Amino acid sequence: MQFHIQTDSEIPVSKQLYDQMLFAIASRQFSPGHRLPSTRQLAMQTGLHRNTIGKVYNQLEATGIVESVPGSGIYVKSLGHESNHLLANSSIDPNLSAIDLVSQSLNTLLAQGYSLTQSRELLLTEIDWRWRCSARVFLTVPQIEIGAGELMLQELQQSLGIPVQLVALEKLEAELAKSHAATVVTTRYFIAAVEAQLTASTVVKSRSIRVIPVDLQDYEKELALVKTLPKNSYVGIISLSAGILSVAEMMVHSMRGEDLLVMTCQTNDNYKLNAIIRRAHTIISDKASLAIVYKAIEAADDDLIRIPQVVESESYIGLRSIDLLKRELGLV
């Protein structure tokens, strides 16, 4: 992950670095347990003062997605179900075959003083608990980011083939109160807020609830395209989510500065959408917005000097993350 900072930008350099760092974690370019670059390394890469980088790391730690280990560095935290696995702290080789993995897991339990009977009960209890949680699946994001939730909902329902209920974070506790067991899915952007709400809830504590963070797409294809666009190109970015647009605009600006003209809009903003259609050389659109983009281009065809190149972002959630979610829900 290379960080790009425009030091002469109106956007504070600390915000540029913070948003890029958060995106790297949310898209699992920095996975749980990953040691973040030192302030010295980042200073050499970005040209920023180490104090500025230190403040950004403090911000990330305050959100609960990274943690400082004295004498070692800053690490991406394990969140949700990642930190609750039965053998989360054991030194199991992930490259082992299935039977060897089970054998080593059992050996770890025995070495920690558990009997065979206790080990069997622990494993069966964990499996049974996960099955019960999988009976009902909630997808949650803050109300202000419900557009991102709608985008995720479309992808999850299509990929999982089971009912998924979208609930604003502000209403999550009330919905969970109606269920004895459930799985709550969200992104790493919002998981700290979700876990804080569940921890503080007396209602949820009496129920079987697990939280699973899904990782965002790394948008490697789109970022590579942005690097190659000619100077002074006009780029339009269209999405259901205001949050995605904000981060995308910042990422493009940090990479190219004033070289590119960028305009963003949600699909319900017809004025901005039509302005982008008429002016943009390239339009990057999420999959859910694509039909609306093409319809707007068709409607304006007679007035267009040129047809913009439309690039589809195929998914918002990383495909590997969806595969892992299927396994967690017992769908594979």
In short:
With about 325 residues, this protein is of the alpha/beta class. The protein is about 45% helix and about 15% strand.
pLDDT under 50 segments (min length 5)? Answer: 85-90
Tally the structural domains.
4
In terms of quaternary structure, the protein is single chain
Name the overall outline. Answer: globular
Number of strands: 10
Strand content: 15-25%
Overall mean pLDDT score?
88
> Rg to the nearest angstrom?
22 Å
Structural notes for this entry:
The chain is α/β, with parallel strands linked by helices and 332 residues long. It folds into 4 domains: 13-77, Winged helix-like DNA-binding domain superfamily/Winged helix DNA-binding domain (Arc Repressor Mutant, subunit A), CATH 1.10.10; 84-127, no CATH class; 134-215 and 319-328, 3-Layer(aba) Sandwich (Rossmann fold), CATH 3.40.50; 220-313, Rossmann fold. 47% of the residues lie in helices and 16% in strands. It contains 13 helices and 10 strands. It has helices spanning 13-26, 39-46, 50-63, 98-111, 116-133, 146-160, 169-176, 191-200, 220-228, 242-256, 270-279, 290-299, 319-328, and strands at 66-69, 73-76, 137-141, 165-168, 181-187, 208-214, 234-239, 261-266, 282-286, 309-313. Strands 4-3-5-6 form a 4-stranded parallel sheet, with helices on both faces. A 4-stranded parallel sheet has the order 8-7-9-10, sandwiched between helices. The protein has a two-stranded antiparallel ribbon with strand order 1-2. α1 (13-26) crosses α10 (242-256) and α2 (39-46) crosses α3. The longest helix has 18 residues, at 116-133. The two termini are 32 Å apart. The relative contact order is 0.12.
